[in-house]
Amino acid sequence: LDATKHYIAKTNDISQHFKERESKFIKYAAELLKAASDNKINDLNFLIANIEKESNITSKTWLLNKANELK
Predict the structure, then answer these.
(1) How far apart are the first and last CA of the chain?
(2) How far apart are alpha carbons 48 and 13 in whole angstroms?
């Protein structure tokens, strides 16, 4: 995730819209991994609520499914 995050931030090969979508996915995927490794269900509920509010995010359904699987 970290390498992809840095690539997206530094490259000019992709549109700003794509950068925003991918950056949000990476942010929430990292938060999902952290919540899962710490086994914090309250964090998962907060994370799910934040993902649901997002309108411009890559693989929103996948993130929500994975978060719900960890509950």
Answers:
(1) 23
(2) 31
- Token pair, residue 6, equals 């840095």
Report which of 64, 69, 43, 42 is spatially closest to residue 53, judged by C-alpha positions.
64
- Give the whole-angstrom CA distance, residue 13 versus residue 25: 18
CB atoms within 10 A of CB 26: 17
Which tens digit of pLDDT belongs to each residue from 23-69?
999 999 999 988 888 877 777 888 999 999 999 999 999 999 999 99
- Six token digits for residue 5: 């995050």
pLDDT tens digit string along 3-22?
999 999 999 999 999 999 99
